[in-house]
Amino acid sequence: MEFQTEGNNGGVGEGNSGFFADCRERLCSAVDSLSCTVFGFAGKLAQIAQDDPRRVVHSLKVGLALTLVSVIYYITPLFNSWGGSTVWAVITVVVVMEFTVGGTLSRGLNRALATLVAGFLAVGAHMVAQLCGEKGEPILLGVFVFLVGSAATFSRYIPEVKARYDYGVTIFLLTFSLVGVSSYRVEEIIELAHERFTTIAVGVAICLFTTVFIFPIWAGEDLHKLTTGNLDKLAEFLEGMGSECFGENSSWENLEDKAFLQVYKSVLNSKAREDSLCTFAKWEPMHGKFRFRHPWNQYQKLGTLCRQCASSMEALVSCVINLKMSQYPEANPELCLKIGATCAAMSLNSAKALRGLSLTIRTMTTPSPINNDMSTATKAASDFRAEFSEDVALLQVMHMAIVASLLSEIVIQIERITESTNNLARLARFKNPERSRSAVVISIED
């Protein structure tokens, strides 16, 4: 009997130890999983900061702006003068602060001006409604709210208003509705409108101060860099085509995995960011090399031409990959080599021309009136069209001719990009590199 009891106790002890071991294993697994999640999230944050360190700067500036505006709560005289309206200053900082100077200026000025105009209209509507007596006042106020709300909402469908003043119209509707409706119950309506506008103006001023004077991030510079980057990507694509597909030692093996065949895709997807930066850049004051009334619209035209060129490149990639997969027999090897050499000339010279245009925009110098690379590419495209337009032998190598035809279309589009870049240089008054060199030489001689 005693032996049986001891056996039972031993079984219970072994069971408890197994249970605790299982719990310990699960706890260790949960801790490991949690640590992996934390370290993974920290690594992701570090990668985001490393990709663009300005994001860290912007976050710190938002924190600084909120700290400055919160001082209103801590200083008793300021809080007593504005009372509950002080919260609008904090809200303004939260909704107005943007990544770029242009974005903050756009939202800040829209918010301030919309609040001012809506406040004046709401006070005016209240004074007119009071003339109708106690019974007619709410009816007339309702009519005013209906008319102004309908008109302001419809104005948002106007493209020019939608592009630059959409946020301002929203704030106008909000302010007019709040002030106009509350005027029926609040006696000091003018004081209410004044407090709201003053606190919003303080919030906007703090936002502009931290955005413009503390490590400013300019939308114009980002747009400028985006344009030059797109030209470089198009040039990289054509350089790869000229060397990897049409060069003397070209190899079509593993063509789908080549990195240069993918670079044009980011150009195709750049329209939204380009339009946003262009809209914000128009709000920014002159800074750096960018003068007052800089031709920002020209960057959009240039971006449109770059995307058209990238679309042709997408068709060219499909054609080249299908050509490689189909493995057509070369009925006329000499003609194929001739077309291949023409394609290589068009690709490489067009790439050099695009690199030159990118350098022109990046350094803001006028392009050379004689562009030998563009002339060579254009001549190669023209010779191809003239020589093979009526050649019967061309039908035997039609698969290569399609590639060459697409490349000749890309050359024509690059000509348009060159013309658009020249217009940008003229409108933005890019400096003449020859004059700059002359000035440097004269200063050295002195």
Automatic annotation (TrEMBL):
Gene Ontology BP annotations: monoatomic ion transmembrane transport
Transmembrane segment boundaries: 56-75, 87-105, 112-133, 139-158, 165-185, 197-219
Key words of the record: Ion channel, Ion transport, Membrane, Transmembrane, Transmembrane helix, Transport
Topological category with respect to the lipid bilayer: Multi-pass membrane protein
Predominant place of localization: membrane
InterPro entries, sorted: ALMT
Protein name: Aluminum-activated malate transporter
Pfam families, per the entry: ALMT (PF11744)
Subcellular location: Membrane
Species in which this protein is naturally found: Urochloa decumbens
Family assignment from sequence similarity: Belongs to the aromatic acid exporter (TC 2.A.85) family.
Single GO cellular component term: membrane
